[in-house]
Write a structure and sequence with these properties.
The structure holds two protein chains of two kinds. In chain A, the strands form two sheets. Chain A has a five-stranded mixed β-sheet, with helices on both faces. Chain A has a five-stranded mixed β-sheet with strand order 8-7-6-9-10, with helices on both faces. Helix content of chain A is about 45%, strand content about 20%. In chain A, helix 4 crosses helix 11, helix 5 runs antiparallel to helix 8 and helix 8 packs parallel to helix 9. In chain B, about 40% of the residues lie in helices and about 30% in strands. Chain B has eight helices and ten strands. In chain B, strands 3-2-1-4-5 form a five-stranded mixed β-sheet, sandwiched between helices. In chain B, strands 8-7-6-9-10 form a five-stranded mixed β-sheet. In chain B, helix 1 crosses helix 2. The N and C termini of chain B lie far apart (about 60 Å). The chains are: A alpha/beta, B alpha/beta. Chains A and B meet through helix 2, helix 3 and helix 5 of A and helix 1, helix 2 and helix 8 of B. Bound molecules: zinc ion (ZN). Zinc ion binds next to helix 4 of chain A.
Chain lengths: ~350, ~240
């Protein structure tokens, strides 16, 4: 299907605990991006509770969509397509967005585009820097994923490495909970670490010199064992040393991947990309290796619907509309070239 | 006024178009693909066959539960989105009301019973009144024994309707004297939904899409289990 610089896509995202809607023109021009986070609803449970998330999405989606349209300053008639995350994610949460998005597309007589949430994270960088040249190496780090992906062209990806156990964000959540720092763990550890010494405890860097895969469950166990043996240790030192170990591994492997594929740029994405130390070390690595580094703003790293609309624009152009009988695909994977 | 009715509170997906003449078109299926896959193509199909454009709807009616949460939200999310896109008002009607309404001429009290799974039932009692039914008391969530207890306490000659009543038919029939409605009435349907909604529309009893609130009557499992889970995981990671 023909898409152009003036094609406006409404993006909708409800895969986890953010209810989001955005209007994006031409695949890159963000007219509006509204995110309503449910983090406070889940904080007391120490993690996202699926049924609570689904109920909240249903309450929040209409006002979030309405606000995205108003903030974009366009009439709804100007919307040319509706794109929505169809997976991966929590099935009940996904279903709210998918049902509403398909209903909007049907009512407005515009195409519907089902979007892979992981692919959307890869596109977040293009919303802020259109000069990025491929091949790119993208380090995607979130509560559910830790992946190194080579982006060879639009819609063309190769998996270079991934976690063999916990995702990096999961390790942050678990360690934060263990240290009593609260939920979500990423920002809590980031904050606590500013007051600690990152060299205080030498936590292991699992598989550091070994390929491009990651492992974080051993690190979490080391933290638990260390604190049990040294109950008087400062939580700030533990947080800082733990964070340093995670970031060390992530940055080392991303640099190695970039060299291995001759990348013309290194990009960070996913919720953990909001971590201050990771951002700092990523920039330093780019300078040291003379490779352009791009780190999206925190708002574009975490879940949002602008990235969904951006992918929607590209996929509508390459693959056309998604049939209206598609459902939610909670275990959807990114399609790799080989 | 044309009304689009959407009903997904049980395993059935049901879509109907209603007008002042009554039900103009409907689609209903209770097997096959899941709600999210079926619903939107069903709306498209019904509109096309009835030669009605989406833009002709003056209101959207939806079943707000009680029912199975995930499927129910598929219908609610779609109905709210359509009403928002068309800028038209909505009517939310309870699934138990939809079960009881077709039995308004039975001349007896009606027990509407929906299978809530996990060994539980959603139920309420109705009595026929001119032109419809009137609910007696609040809907409840309870076991089949709770339902039988209520049936015995009420002591009238009664007809039971709904997938919950059919699932526990033998148990209920062994304990109390009552009739069971036909199997084809066992799921709430979009046909009575648009009929009831039309009556409400005449009285302008409608709300905005963001005011539609589903009936859950059961807290999320996490809230129920929280105290036990918290003590179990204390100190763990
Ligand atoms: Zn994400």
């Amino acid at each position: 299907m023909n898409v152009s610089e003036s094609t406006v896509v409404l993006g909708i995202e409800t895969s986890c605990d953010e209810t989001a809607a955005a209007l994006v023109m031409g695949g890159h021009d963000v007219l509006s991006s509204v995110v309503s986070t449910q983090v406070d609803l889940h904080a007391q449970y120490g993690g996202v509770v699926p049924e609570i998330a689904s109920r909240a999405h249903l309450d929040l989606l209409n006002p979030v969509v309405a606000r995205a349209i108003v903030e974009a300053g366009v009439e709804p008639e100007r919307i040319d397509a509706v794109a929505c995350t169809i997976g991966p994610g929590l099935v009940g949460a996904l279903l709210v967005g998918v049902s509403a998005a398909k209903a909007l597309a049907l009512t407005w007589h515009v195409p519907f585009v089902g979007v892979n949430h992981m692919e959307a994270h890869l596109y977040a960088a293009f919303l802020e820097d259109r000069s990025l040249e491929m091949p790119l190496v993208v380090l995607l780090v979130s509560g559910g994923h830790t992946m190194l992906i080579e982006m060879r062209g639009h819609g063309s990806y190769r998996l270079l490495g991934q976690t063999i156990d916990d995702a990096a964000g999961e390790a942050f959540d678990k360690v934060a909970r263990f240290l009593g720092l609260g939920y979500p763990g990423g920002p809590a550890i980031d904050q606590e670490a500013t007051r600690g010494d990152p060299t205080a405890i030498a936590f292991p860097r699992a598989m550091l010199n070994d390929g491009l895969d990651f492992s974080f469950s051993g690190l979490k166990t080391s933290v638990v064992n260390y604190v049990r043996k040294n109950p008087d240790v400062s939580a700030a030192d533990v947080a800082a040393s733990f964070q340093a170990a995670v970031v060390d591994v992530l940055v080392t492997k991303a640099r190695r991947a970039a060299v291995a594929v001759g990348a013309r740029g290194l990009v960070l994405g996913g919720g953990v990309a909001a971590n201050s130390l990771l951002r700092e070390r990523f920039v330093a690595a780019g300078e040291a290796d003379s490779i352009p580094v791009f780190i999206p703003s925190r708002a574009m790293c975490t879940d949002n619907a602008a990235m969904i609309a951006a992918v929607g624009w590209h996929r509508l152009g390459s693959d056309g509309p998604t049939p209206l009988d598609v459902g939610a695909l909670p275990n959807l994977r990114l399609a790799f070239d080989d | 006024m044309l009304i689009l009715g959407i009903e997904t509170a049980t395993e059935q997906v049901s879509v109907a178009i209603g007008g002042h003449e009554g039900v103009l078109a409907m689609f209903q299926v209770c097997r096959g693909r899941r709600h999210a896959e079926t619903l939107i193509p069903a709306i498209e199909f019904v509109c096309k066959q009835a030669d009605i454009e989406m833009s002709e709807f003056g209101a959207v009616a939806v079943d707000i539960g009680l029912g199975l949460f995930t499927g129910m939200r598929v219908g609610l999310a779609a109905a709210k989105a359509i009403a928002q896109a068309l800028r038209v008002p909505m009517m939310g009607i309870s699934s138990l009301d939809l079960l009881a309404f077709p039995l308004r001429q039975s001349g007896r009290e009606v027990a509407a019973v929906i299978d809530a799974r996990k060994g539980e039932l959603f139920f309420a009692f109705y009595r026929p009144v001119p032109g419809g039914v009137q609910r007696l008391g609040e809907p409840r969530c309870g076991s089949v024994d709770d339902l039988i207890g209520e049936l015995m306490a009420r002591g009238h000659d009664r007809v039971c309707v709904g997938d919950g009543a059919l699932r526990y038919r033998d148990q209920i029939a062994a304990a109390v004297n009552c009739d069971f409605a036909e199997q084809y009435l066992a799921h709430p349907s979009a046909a009575p939904l648009v009929q009831l909604a039309h009556a409400r529309a005449l009285r302008e009893e409608w709300v905005n899409p963001w005011e539609i609130q589903p009936l859950y009557l059961r807290a999320p499992d996490a809230q129920i289990n929280w105290s036990t889970r918290q003590s179990a995981t204390k100190g763990g990671v």
